[in-house]
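Table 4 source record.
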Amino acid sequence: QVQLVESGGGLVQAGGSLRLSCAASGNIFSRYSMSWYRQAPGKQRELVARIFTRGGTDYADSVKGRVTISRDNAKNTVYLQMSSLKPEDAAVYYCRMGNFNSWGQGTQVTVSS
């Protein structure tokens, strides 16, 4: 079973930036798309961004233009660069490999207004 470890969250002022990282175990990372999800209190987990095996990307409308997803297959790591953060971006952020139902502990992003 794949293990995912997210990091990089924290407290940031509105308009600030953060870079999240997610490291995956094993040697299958390059074979799968990688996604970032987020879940705010009282809300459903939602897809933020996805990067496919060949580098194509897809973003939620709410973050387009402010977020960039990237991957480093040599490091089994996917990144989420977030800028111009808004209070509504505050959530626990999780990464996901493919469609596996395996989640890490997440990393908390807090945005102060």
